[in-house]
Amino acid sequence: ERKELSRRIAAPLPGGARFVPVLSRKGGVGKTTVTTLLGMALADARDDRVIAVDANPDRGTLAERIA
């Protein structure tokens, strides 16, 4: 079961790039942590590039996490 899951994660998706939003109206609930770890996991599992955008208008911390 685990091998099948790994195979499905690594398989190319039809249609090219995908958009995976991570959002919440409340601050401090883990959006940056989830975004960072999800991006790292997808890049590693798929041997692919990931673009993460921190659109927080106040004080986003994504750049600090991945620097």
Give the SSE layout.
Elements: H1 2-10, H2 31-46, H3 62-66
What does this structure look like?
The protein is mainly α. It is built from three helices and no strands. The protein has one domain. The mean pLDDT is 86.
The gyration radius over C-alpha positions equals 14 Å
What's the helix-strand series? HHH
> How helical, in percent, are the residues?
40-55%
Q: Report how far apart the termini are.
A: 35 Å
Mean pLDDT rating: 86
The tally of strands reads 0
- Which regions contain 5 or more consecutive residues with pLDDT less than 50? none
Number of helices: 3
Find the structural class using helix and strand composition. mainly alpha
Offer a quick outline of the entry.
This protein has helices spanning 2-10, 31-46, 62-66. By secondary structure, it is mostly helical. The relative contact order is 0.15.
Provide the descriptors you would attach to this structure in a database record.
single chain, 67 residues, mainly alpha, 3 helices, 45% helix, elongated
